[in-house]
Automatic annotation (TrEMBL):
<dbReference type="InterPro" id="IPR029044">
    <property type="entry name" value="Nucleotide-diphossugar_trans"/>
</dbReference>
<keyword id="KW-1133">Transmembrane helix</keyword>
<dbReference type="Pfam" id="PF04138">
    <property type="entry name" value="GtrA_DPMS_TM"/>
</dbReference>
<dbReference type="InterPro" id="IPR007267">
    <property type="entry name" value="GtrA_DPMS_TM"/>
</dbReference>
<keyword id="KW-0808">Transferase</keyword>
<keyword id="KW-0328">Glycosyltransferase</keyword>
<dbReference type="GO" id="GO:0016020">
    <property type="term" value="C:membrane"/>
</dbReference>
<feature type="transmembrane region" description="Helical">
    <location>
        <begin position="318"/>
        <end position="341"/>
    </location>
</feature>
<dbReference type="InterPro" id="IPR039528">
    <property type="entry name" value="DPM1-like"/>
</dbReference>
<feature type="domain" description="Glycosyltransferase 2-like">
    <location>
        <begin position="6"/>
        <end position="174"/>
    </location>
</feature>
<feature type="domain" description="GtrA/DPMS transmembrane">
    <location>
        <begin position="250"/>
        <end position="370"/>
    </location>
</feature>
<dbReference type="GO" id="GO:0000271">
    <property type="term" value="P:polysaccharide biosynthetic process"/>
</dbReference>
<protein>
    <submittedName>
        <fullName>Glycosyl transferase family 2</fullName>
    </submittedName>
</protein>
<dbReference type="GO" id="GO:0009247">
    <property type="term" value="P:glycolipid biosynthetic process"/>
</dbReference>
<keyword id="KW-0812">Transmembrane</keyword>
<feature type="transmembrane region" description="Helical">
    <location>
        <begin position="347"/>
        <end position="365"/>
    </location>
</feature>
<dbReference type="Pfam" id="PF00535">
    <property type="entry name" value="Glycos_transf_2"/>
</dbReference>
């Protein structure tokens, strides 16, 4: 049976935490089948004695745990909670959930069900059908939340996921959480740690699902909506977005150098009286040699092919996959020149490269030649 630990940071939540514990243990957990549900409250020695409330309930519920530590901010509360849940409690999956009822307890069950159906990462989503943000929120706050999310979706090019800043999530330990270096997340003292964690989790997860979440407003106390948190969240998103595109940028640069070589020799060979097909074919092959070498040493440095035998083997394979590109360019180029005339030759080449050859190449390089082990 799977063991799921809900990690719940609570700072000065003495008024909420008792109600939350009762709602989970009395109402929600009994409805969840085929799992052992646990709750781990992470308290930073709250002055209002949140920890003491939890201790009282611990006598009643054996699956209720308390981790107390010094205050270091929201990210660290979750990180230390995850580590305790995995190392000490041996969790198969962890959930992130707030203590202030903004994540209503009734949404735990559908998340667990998605996990039991095979999801590695479940995202409680406010921006899919069935999900929502509080009606009480002012238009301004709704707009900030929606546009902020949209911005992060664009920066990270994660259009398939609708809610990238939600705090309600479930993560499988094996294959996802156990692959993440929790001690080195970006902005661990802040809310922004969520974006880094989400970005890494989506990458590792084979099956990510969004489950609707009706996000509630704070019931007990006034919200402390904070522009500093917002700025750091966007900063993390932008840094991750650039990192994410690094390979693509390098690949594009190598491709451009390849294009220059291609263009130079196409001109050279055709001026030297080579037949049309030979000029295209030869100049393309020279570009292929350039691309293999530069991509291996730079773009895919982390997966660099080493050793003469391996390099020869992979170079042959590279040529074989490039045969597709060679064919595409030679055929399209020859046909193009036939219809448009030789003066359009230099114009034709970049078109064929950008729209046909580059997408084909990137796919082949990442999925075949420099495929991750
Ligand atoms: N242990 C611990 N818990 C924290 C800390 N900061 C926040 N929390 C808890 O983490 C959860 C989320 O924090 P909130 O302050 O509600 O953050 P928020 O939901 O983004 O903002 P609000 O709109 O003000 O509710 C709550 O259960 C808090 O009690 C912290 O530094 N340490
Ligand atoms: Mg809150």
């Amino acid at each position: 049976m799977s063991k799921i630990v809900i990690v719940m940071p609570a700072y000065n939540e003495a008024e909420n935490i008792g109600k939350m514990i009762e709602a989970l243990f009395n109402e929600e957990f009994p409805k969840i089948k085929d799992t052992e549900m646990h709750l781990l409250v992470v308290d930073d020695y709250s002055p209002d004695k949140t920890g003491d409330v939890v201790k009282t309930y611990q006598q009643k519920y054996k699956n209720l745990h308390l981790l107390q530590k010094q205050k270091e901010g929201l990210g660290w509360a979750y990180i230390r909670g995850f580590q305790y849940a995995v190392n000490t409690l041996q969790a198969d999956a962890v959930m992130e959930m707030d203590a202030d009822f903004q994540h209503p307890p009734r949404f735990v069950k559908p998340m667990v069900e998605a996990y039991l159906l095979g999801a590695d990462y479940c995202i409680g989503s406010r921006y899919i059908k069935g999900g929502s943000v509080p009606k009480e929120w002012a238009f301004f706050r709704k707009a900030i939340s929606f546009l902020g999310n949209l911005f992060i979706r664009i920066v990270l090019t994660k259009f398939k996921i609708h809610d990238l800043t939600t705090g309600f999530r479930l993560t499988r330990e094996k294959g996802v959480l156990d692959q993440i270096d929790l001690d080195h997340l970006m902005e661990p003292t802040r809310f922004a740690y969520k974006v880094d964690l989400l970005y890494q989790s989506i990458k590792l997860s084979k099956k990510t699902v969004e489950v609707p979440l009706e996000f509630a407003s704070r019931t007990m106390e006034k919200s402390k909506f904070n522009p500093k948190e917002m700025v750091s969240t966007f900063k993390v998103a932008v840094i991750l977005g650039i990192k994410d595109k690094q390979k693509l940028i390098k690949f594009g640069t190598v491709g451009f150098v390849g294009y220059l070589i291609n263009a130079f020799f196409l001109n050279f060979f055709s001026k030297s009286g080579f037949p049309e097909w030979a000029s295209w074919g030869l100049s393309t092959e020279l570009a292929i040699i350039n691309n293999f070498t530069l991509n291996n040493l730079w773009t895919f440095k982390t997966d660099e092919i080493k050793g003469i035998g391996n390099i020869v083997k992979k170079f042959l394979q590279f040529n074989f996959t490039s045969l597709g590109a060679l064919l595409i360019q030679t055929v399209l180029g020859t046909i193009g020149v036939y219809f448009l005339g030789p003066d359009k030759r230099q114009l034709l080449l970049p078109f064929i490269i950008v729209f046909v050859v580059l997408p084909y190449n990137y796919l082949m390089y990442t999925k075949v030649i420099w495929k991750k082990k």
